[in-house]
Amino acid sequence: MVIADDEPSMRLLVHATIESDDYTVVEAGDGTQAWAMIQQHKPSLVLLDVQMPGKSGLEVLQLVKADPALAATRVILLTAKAQESDIETGLIAGADFYLTKPFSPLDLLTRVEEALQLA
Amino acid sequence: MRLSRHGWSLRQYMAGFMAVLLIVAAAAEIAVRGVAEQGARQAAESDASFAARAGAAEIANELALLRKTTDGLAANPQAAVVVTSASASCNLTFAGGMLFTAGHLDIVGSDGSVKCSSLTHPSGLVYGAAPWLSASLNTPVTAAPYLDPVTGRISAVVASPLRGIGTILGVVDLAAVGPNLASTLGGGRKLEFLVTTTDTHTVLISSLQPARWVGTKLADASIANPSAPTERHGIDGTSRLYARSAVASTTWMLSAGADKAAALAASDRFASLSLAIILGGVGLMLVVIFIVYRRIAEPVRRLSLVMRGTTPGSAADAVGGRGPTEVTGLALDYDNLMSSVKQELADRLTSQYQAMVSERNYRMLFESHPQPMWLYDVESHAILKVNDAAVEEYGYSRDEFLLMTIKDLSRPQDVPKFLELMATTPSFERSGPWPHILKDGSTIQVLVTSHAIRFGEHDARFVLAENLTESRRLELELSQAQARADSSAELGRAKDEMLSVVSHEMRTPLASIVGFTELLVTRDVAPAQRKQYLGVMLQEGLRLTALITDFLDLRLIDRGHKSMRFGPADMGALIKRAVGLAGEAGAAVELRLPEDLPLVSVDSDSILRVLTNLLSNARKYSPDGGNVVVGAGAADGMLEVYVQDHGLGIPSEALSQVFDKFYRVEAADRRSIKGTGLGLAISKNIVEVHGGKVGVRSEGIGKGSLFYFTVPLTQELALSGDVLVVEDDPGFAQLLEAELTGQGLSSIWAADAETAERLMANVRAVVLDLVLPGLSGEALLERLRAGLGSATPVVVVTSKDLDIAASLALQKAGVTAVLRKGSDTAATTASLLAATLHRELVAS
């Protein structure tokens, strides 16, 4: 599982929320780093912040979807953007779920579990 | 050109003309008289000359006739018979001539005896003693004078020889010749004829008194032989003009004299006649002049009297149809001209009066209009006139207003924009809202209406400033915002973007806080983790707070709603305070401040914020340490402050954007550095409100950066007054100043002790707050006493609870009073100081 967010406090929150003995979690501080980690670890699930320096969450999402080797990887987008058009963009790009900040950690956990079942 | 009135009047011209006429007439008379006399004299001379020649010719002619007669007789053979034969009969007749009227013919024998005579007697040796006898027997003889023994008269003898035996005599009586000459040739001219022998000066013929003069000898040769023509007295003593002529074949000389008096009498008559003619002419001229004067000069004079205003009424009436058409025409023209001039004048006076009334109305409208109005000069921007509402609204006195320019009313950053509007659009309606700064430093929003007018010599603008009330302002702002949004999709997008940025910036910390809270609420969290979570929450909460504060501040400053109070401030002290606030952590700060930095005119709190922001940025973006340099220097009425670091630097493409809202340089090296992206935008706004500029220089990534800003220096004028108010609370300071103004005291304000120390020498009294940023009130008091002695009254106003020791210390320092801040402290302070300073004035 890869968590990508430029805000350390957000990474901590997400990390703390989904912390489990069932899977390992790695953190990335920007899009480029996240993409490198995804390619390296081929994770089951990626939690992407949309607004990140380097590569944006949407760019990373497209790369994941375009890579056949990552067909099994589920993606959840996290963003402060809350407009309708943003949600549509995210879903069209192929994200499995979409959460708007501020989000409920329990909601996040539910979504993570749902995504893992899809995998 | 203005004509002089010193010329001659028509009357004087007339008089002069008459005088000249008389002088000319007199000269003409004298000339005529001279010419006539000359002519008479010449005529007399020519008469005399003619008479002399004619008389001489006539005498010669008569003598020749007589000779012819005697020669004829001598040739007659009968004559010899008469001489030789005593009994021979003879008959002689003396025919006489025009001149020689009396005389006789004689046939005389050689012994002088008369043989035959035209007279009946005599006989005998009548001519025996005659001196010419013997000669006359053989040659023709003419002799005179000869006393004729026959007649006893002085005579002339013409003798023709008779073959030696005798002689034929013609004897003429000379006494009769003169009168005959006079009657034949003298005419009415009273000519005198005088014939003399040239040698003996014997008178032969005289037309005057012949009985007396003929035969006499003249003593004076000039009488007998004058050089002709000449003037002299005749033998009768009368003055005559003489001419002479020689009588042919004799030695006789004839003089003819014209009577001078008679000749001149004729010329006198002529001269008298000419004088009469001249006088008649002059008289005629005078009549003509009088008529002309009556016909032209008099109407002109009347016209002139009317024109000069001496005579009332119309010119045409005064002239009254008399005089030539030119003058009556002139009078009519003058009347027409005057009536149109009067009409024009009346119109002008009416319009002037109306203009005056309307000007007074406008003045009243201007003075008593409830909204602020003023006039300012387009060139200098100086305010020329203000109304009561402006004085009331803005807080400046009328005199202060007149020393200001319109630039002093606007916020410094608005000035260029307003000047441009003013230069491009002379007249506009309700432009704005423009923020205007009042005397107390607060800002009001006004709608400005401007019109170009002339004010005296000035090319001026009239301005009406409508102060927007809060509700009206909001309404206007809304409509303007709507208008902006409606009219510009670009602006709308910008607003969307702004909203999106703000929401993103706020949602991130909010997400942390909410998320961690939920975790803490729903899970059992280990104490260590709990502490970690709470720490993150606090941090994010603070971040959110800072963000909201910054954002609201930015909005307030943007719209000119943040209240700022400009006052003199010591920039060095502000910088030191900002450095102190930044704390010890992070890069070391080096100060490069000149000793004598001039005071600046700023809102101290705002500038402190700018300094803090720049310092904090400098430290934040110098993660590897490296010193930060803060320096300042004055130039061109502004003070420039710079903050230089040796940290991460700014890429050149980002230099133009660093002051934009929410802009943050995107680079890996500074990703971990927190910030709202509003600090520089706020700093830029604050500096621009002060009329200054901000800027940044950086050589690029890793080369560090230098931020600088400028603020205006304090005007010299604003640095002195009666009372120095040392108070860090702008609101209370303003209240104090208002109360002092009410007491007739001027004041200057210092927000901290450092600034106050620089100003304390310029005032007569001090109001001092004890709790101040930086240097404390007590410390300032000490320096004040050390610097100025104990004479300057000091009133301490504080909210601090003073213990006895502190109060005593203040009393020792010679404080006039210690007042606790309360509702009426300001008023009490002002009246206390007014009384103290007044006493001082009286005492001095």
What's the SSE blueprint?
The complex is a heterodimer of chains A (119) and B (844).
Chain A: E1 2-4, H1 8-18, E2 26-28, H2 31-41, E3 45-49, H3 57-66, E4 74-79, H4 84-92, E5 97-100, H5 105-118
Parallel strand pairs in A: 1-2, 1-3, 3-4, 4-5
Chain B: H1 10-75, H2 77-84, E1 103-109, E2 114-117, H3 133-136, E3 141-147, E4 154-162, E5 166-173, H4 177-186, E6 192-197, E7 203-206, H5 210-213, H6 221-224, E8 230-233, E9 239-246, E10 252-259, H7 260-308, H8 315-319, H9 325-368, E11 373-377, E12 383-386, H10 388-394, H11 398-402, H12 415-424, E13 428-437, E14 443-455, E15 458-467, H13 470-487, H14 489-522, H15 527-558, E16 567-569, H16 571-582, E17 589-592, E18 600-602, H17 604-620, E19 628-635, E20 638-645, H18 679-689, E21 694-698, E22 705-712, E23 723-726, H19 730-742, E24 747-750, H20 753-759, E25 765-768, H21 777-788, E26 794-798, H22 804-812, E27 817-820, H23 825-843
Parallel strand pairs in B: 17-19, 23-24, 23-25, 25-26, 26-27
Antiparallel strand pairs in B: 1-2, 1-5, 3-4, 4-5, 6-7, 6-10, 8-9, 9-10, 11-12, 11-15, 13-14, 14-15, 16-18, 19-20, 20-22, 21-22
Helix pairs in contact in B: 1-7, 7-9, 14-15, 15-18, 16-17, 17-18, 19-23, 20-21
